[in-house]
Amino acid sequence: MGKLMLGNEAVARGAYEAGVTVAAAYPGTPSTEITENIAKYDDIYSEWSPNEKVALEVAIGASIAGARAICSMKHVGLNVAADPLFTVSYTGVNGGLVIMVADDPGMHSSQNEQDSRIYALGSKIPMLEPADSQECKDYVKLAFEISEKFDAPVIVRLSTRVSHSQSIVNVGEKENYQLKEYKKNFGKYVMMPAMARLRHVEVEKRMALLKDYSENSGINKIEWGSKDVGIITSGVAYQYAREAFGDVSYLKLGMVHPLPEKLISDFAKEVKKLYIIEELEPFIENFAKGLGIEAIGKSALPVMGEYSTQLLKEKILGEKVDIGSVLNENVPVRPPVMCPGCPHRGMFYVMRKLKLVVSGDIGCYTLGALPPTEAMDTCVCMGASVGIAHGMEKARGKEFGKRTVGVLGDSTFIHSGITGLIDIVYNKGISTILVLDNSITGMTGHQHNPTTGYTIKGEPTKQVDLVKLANAIGIDRVRVADPFDIKEFEKVVKEEINTEEPSLIISQRPCELLKSVKYEGTLKIKQEACKNCKLCLSVGCPSLVDQGDTVEINEALCVGCGLCTKVCNFNAIVKAGETNG
Amino acid sequence: MDKLNIMIVGVGGQGTLLASRVLGTVALKKSYDVKVSEVHGMAQRGGSVVTYVKWGEKVFSPIIEKGEADIILAFEQLEAIRWLQYLKPGSGKMIVSSQKINPMPVITGKAKYPDNIIGKIKEAYGNTISLDALEIAKSCGNMKAINIVLLGVLAKSTGIEKEIWIESIKEIVPQKVLDVNLRAFEAGYNV
Description:
The complex is a heterodimer of chains A (581) and B (191). Chain A has 581 residues and is of the alpha/beta class. Chain A folds into 4 domains: 2-216, Rossmann fold; 221-319, Rossmann fold, CATH 3.40.50; 344-508, Rossmann fold (3-Layer(aba) Sandwich), CATH 3.40.50.970; 523-575, Alpha-Beta Plaits. In chain A, the strands form 6 sheets. Chain A has a 7-stranded mixed β-sheet, sandwiched between helices. In chain A, helix 11 (236-245) links the parallel strand 10 (226-234) and strand 11 (248-253). Chain A is globular, with a radius of gyration of 27 Å. In chain B, strand 4 (71-74), helix 2 (77-82) and strand 5 form a beta-alpha-beta unit. Chain B has helices at residues 17-29, 77-82, 104-107, 117-124, 133-140, 146-158, 162-172, 178-189; strands at 4-11, 33-38, 48-56, 71-74, 93-97, 129-131. The longest helix of chain B is centred in the first third of the chain and has 13 residues, at 17-29. Chain B has a 6-stranded mixed β-sheet with strand order 2-3-1-4-5-6, sandwiched between helices. With 191 residues, chain B is an alpha/beta fold. At the A-B interface, strand 8, helix 11 and strand 20 of A face helix 1, strand 2, helix 2, helix 3 and helix 4 of B.
């Protein structure tokens, strides 16, 4: 009997079975569970790195040293890791090197929906694309073989539906992989112009060999059915196509770079009508069209969002779906919100009250841009809050700078906020930056990071001292404040934004979801004391319910953090057990 | 067997994951092909969440689309009506717990929580089952067992042997809360 596994868990299993001994990653939805699952294997060294660039460099080091190594990230993480990526293509590997990248079509939890296949093309690195959990495991193992056979790193591309769907996996035995010998080889591993020119020649030779592999290895395979319709597809789009079209002919591509020229041409010749079905960019389609093949792809299907069986039926077969009786009901949306008890809520309350321009960042606190807080002006990428705040000040002057702050989480600050902060100091900016130290990486589901003092395996380690760090780079004004002590927090923010030098405010309170955080029971509104002024609603907690004539607290949601009691002028919010009214 | 498409819908943080793991285990014991799909990350923070569970001889797409669900297990009323159009016309069955959790637009007064949701669903789908799963879970000894109460109701609807469900729950649920959950399953099964 097989095991039911997430695609991400199957990747971890594949790495284990392939004899991987080093794994590095920065968490990012939908890739996070890969490395969380790898961390469960005691014979693999695993780590959360500060960012994806470092993660890839660690994996490259492990590979050069002779180990099989894997590193994992979400699609936008590959942007961060792009610098080592393009050059490790030249150096090639010693032990096998596999880079997992998870795309997010439809942007369930991302800021863009870029297509990672473009990176494979640009960096001349082979790329595989599994379509279910079994293939996740099999392709990861195969990727290590390809990596060593062709002296190339290999990218395995996932997407949200592959990463976060569970399907049946047959597990195998662990391969007894021995470290490869380490030999100094500067012609291969020191990329200076003279050596890099020679390595580029090797890269081109390798790509020619990989094309043969793509044609003949069987990873790209034809499933013949009716030849009236032929479909070229890969990844989860294959699953939608199979369900929508049934018994037609399929060319399922497991290797999406380099693509098999002859296989695609031969398949195209055999079928009457050819469709190319791929989410996001017309990557396969452009390649096929370059071969002079006629096919229907993006002329019928979108370049945006996720595909589905019904979308294919509708756009290609012209079939409308019977959805039966639909109630004509106005159903309010339920957008994600910051949790009751979230420490960010107090901070955003102050930002909103002071009407500051808030340069935001990537994390749970990005939700502060939405109602009811609506206290964020920008959010671009990891760490961008710092540089953007600085750029705003330089564009509009110091007075504007005094109304502008950058806000980012502790993990995001370590990821790529530090360099921006150094820029502010070096180039005489006056920005105030708030680092939200909630003792964990929140949004991706509680991973440790260099500020928490624990490793991925929960072992105690050194902790970055944010105060000393800021002092060392030249910030003299560093303040630590509790965002739930609203009055003091507001005072600190006012003082810091009004100085003519850079400041760092560490907003310190742990994530409410941490097991170590215990508040004392839920709260209740003492109706006889309540003036129904609704000021408490301004903190924007989902536990506070506006009933028109009254405000009530939803006891099932309230965690008793007490933030709302700090804004009530009538002491009307009390512990649920302490009132009769 | 024929295909069976089950959706579990609720609000982030309600603990729908455990229910889907039990459903996955049941499918494995019955030697069905199975896919379980959900989205993690930002959407989970108090937002509307959905898990798709598909059983069959061979399952391709991991997601269930409009008009395709045989059963929807709803942990909350508003979520039940939000996903209603995913039920199969005619034969689809809604199992809904009567909990209400206000979404942010209702909390801020920008929208109204619809009235009489369960009545309206029952009108559209005759074989709807509604229950106060929270109350039942509490009476079994743990309000968190709400998911297993609902699974009990679902189990009865599928016609799959009760023993397989119980074995699966024993495999998935931690030992220290197993008794409560077995009671919760029984209570749901007998609704």
